[in-house]
Backbone:
């Protein structure tokens, strides 16, 4: 009888292939059975050994290539369920920032563009709010903690093909810090930044240098554990654009030089802007979308339902009817994404000596604070869309100690004690107290209502008159923070990264506020420089307590909203993060992305919404 033998090595090859096919079929795309023919050697033994060949048939599993969507100008292939490229655009309203500058390092508050489409930041935040490298590949701190080296990506070029090197980053920050940049205080941790900003040192003395073409070194005044997070707003600017085209290069599509994944192709002030993919971009930001369109867009929930706008925030300013409609409509509820509180509204007092007496008297400021029934006002006006603020850190933020701060004297509503304090300062029942203005930065309806309620409490409880001065962004910034000519001001501050320093840094002496407190600044700076996170956080809690007790500021509320965007917006960056929050825009809150990792799919999920 004939007996068939298959060599052991060949047997393992055949069975191994079958096993691998089974594993792949079990965890990937369904495999398709396919018949293939193989030639194998067969040894036949009877009386004489003879080797013959025989053709056999074998069924193997063949896995087809996964389907894909279109590929955009950056070479990014969209997922299979993506709409055609002509549908992959985002709409942005003109005027959310507005202003006369086109680059972030010229002005934060008076620039024409909100997003980072045409500019590359050094770092950014992912959806879990962790810092990650963007223009750099990595960073390393020195042993003494006094400088950081950032290894830059060598493949990056400007849209005109010129390589982006460490020298461009040095130029950018030197120019910004020596030109009255209105966000300059953000970088005051950097060595000599304060003196360069104030014109006391030349820009060459700023603590930043190019170790070589692709190593950027940043020196700090003290150890600064969060320094890489400052890179979320540090965007490189092309020196040769200023030299070749002058100050307004970034507002002219014919002159615009991009470092980011998009480039400006249309700019009509007040009418519309358009950004298209920058084909020379070589960085890690790989957007699916192909256009950013900035237009004069309608507002309100009807416009959102009709598809005329792509997102809307429901908050305390939304009409009651719109809030009710969202609650009643199952599609709109599906499209609703609660956002965490990431900002705080507060009142500031100008305490500079001789500027606006008696606001330099702590008893007067304490009286003004204790005359405000914060919890009641926030509850009534914001209707569940804000948390009372007991300090600068919003509820849920790292190192939040609101329950402790709530017990501090400035946060305790006591109109009788407030009247006694004012009388002690020489103004019984408010007699003789000056009439001050309270400047309010770009107030919406709820914030204006809150300021009016505070104005009324001061009148009712203290007998004093404070006039309200609603102001646009630029006028407020110039008067209150640059010239320091606002006696009282109401302003909002939002995070830039997830560390207490993002809020507390702004209160240091020499920064934005018309209040000087070198003792607090020294305590805070020492605490903030501790590299041990547990010790550092404990001392930063004490710093926030002292800030509240200074009564140079009265922290009022931390508002939040519910963001709606269409259910056919998909992608990795709009998925829930580790805390269950979802964000629109391509990354974590606190930094301006350009819509990476999101795309538009079939809108069938919105059927019946209209």
Residues:
């Amino acid at each position: 009888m004939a007996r068939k033998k298959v060599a052991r090595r060949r047997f393992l090859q055949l069975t191994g292939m079958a096993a691998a096919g089974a594993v792949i079929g079990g965890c990937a795309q369904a495999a398709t059975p396919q018949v293939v023919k193989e030639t194998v050697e067969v040894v036949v033994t009877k009386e004489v050994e003879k080797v013959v060949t025989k053709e056999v048939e074998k069924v193997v599993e063949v896995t087809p290539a996964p389907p894909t969507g279109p590929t955009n100008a950056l070479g990014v292939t969209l997922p299979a369920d993506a709409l055609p490229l002509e549908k992959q655009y985002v709409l942005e309203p003109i005027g959310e920032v507005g202003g006369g500058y086109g680059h972030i390092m010229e002005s934060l508050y008076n620039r024409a563009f909100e997003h980072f489409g045409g500019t590359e930041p050094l770092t950014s935040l992912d959806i879990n709010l962790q810092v990650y490298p963007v223009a750099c590949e990595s960073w390393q701190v020195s042993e003494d903690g006094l400088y950081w080296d950032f290894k830059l990506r060598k493949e990056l070029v400007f849209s005109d093909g010129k390589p982006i090197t460490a020298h461009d980053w040095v130029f950018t920050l030197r120019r910004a810090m020596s030109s009255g940049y209105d966000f300059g205080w953000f970088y005051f941790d950097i060595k000599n930044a304060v003196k360069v900003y104030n014109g006391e040192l030349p820009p060459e003395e700023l603590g930043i240098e190019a170790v070589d073409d692709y190593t950027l070194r940043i020196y700090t005044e003290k150890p600064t554990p969060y320094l890489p997070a400052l890179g979320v707003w540090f965007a490189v600017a092309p020196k040769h654009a200023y030299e070749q085209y002058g100050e307004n290069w970034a507002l002219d599509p014919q002159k615009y030089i991009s470092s980011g994944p998009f480039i400006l192709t249309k700019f009509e002030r007040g009418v519309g802007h358009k950004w298209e993919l920058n084909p020379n971009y070589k960085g890690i930001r790989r957007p699916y979308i192909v256009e950013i369109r900035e237009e004069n867009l309608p507002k309100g929930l009807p416009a959102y339902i009709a598809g005329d706008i792509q997102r809307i925030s429901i908050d305390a300013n939304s009409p009651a009817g719109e809030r009710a409609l969202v609650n009643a409509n199952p599609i709109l509820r599906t499209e609703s994404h609660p956002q965490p509180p990431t900002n705080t509204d507060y009142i500031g007092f100008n305490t500079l000596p001789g500027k606006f007496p008696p606001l330099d008297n702590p008893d007067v400021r304490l009286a003004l604070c204790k005359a405000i029934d914060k919890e009641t006002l926030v509850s009534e006006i914001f209707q569940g869309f804000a948390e009372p603020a007991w300090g600068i850190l919003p509820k849920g933020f790292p190192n939040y100690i609101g329950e402790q701060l709530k017990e501090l004297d400035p946060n305790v509503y006591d109109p009788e004690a407030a009247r006694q304090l004012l009388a002690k300062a020489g103004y019984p029942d408010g007699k003789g107290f000056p009439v001050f203005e309270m400047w309010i930065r770009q107030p919406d309806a709820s914030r204006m209502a809150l300021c009016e309620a505070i104005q009324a409490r001061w009148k009712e409880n203290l007998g004093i008159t404070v006039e309200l001065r609603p102001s646009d962004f630029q006028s407020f910034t110039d008067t209150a923070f640059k010239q320091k000519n606002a006696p009282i001001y109401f302003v909002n501050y939002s995070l830039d990264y997830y560390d207490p320093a993002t809020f507390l840094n702004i209160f240091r002496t020499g920064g934005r506020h018309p209040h000087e407190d070198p003792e607090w600044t020294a305590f805070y700076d020492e605490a903030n420089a501790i590299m041990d996170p547990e010790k550092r956080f404990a001392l930063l809690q004490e710093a926030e307590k002292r800030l509240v007790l200074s009564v140079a500021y009265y922290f009022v509320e931390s508002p939040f909203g519910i963001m709606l965007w269409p259910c056919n917006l998909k992608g990795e960056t709009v998925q829930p993060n580790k805390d269950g929050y979802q964000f629109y825009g391509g990354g974590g809150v606190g930094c301006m992305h350009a819509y990476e990792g999101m795309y538009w799919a079939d809108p069938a999920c919105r059927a019946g919404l209209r």
Q: What stands out?
A: Residues 435 and 465 are 5 Å apart (CA to CA). The mean pLDDT is 90. DSSP finds 16 helices and 23 strands in the chain. The domain at 343-559 is CATH 3.10.105.10 (Dipeptide-binding Protein; domain 3).
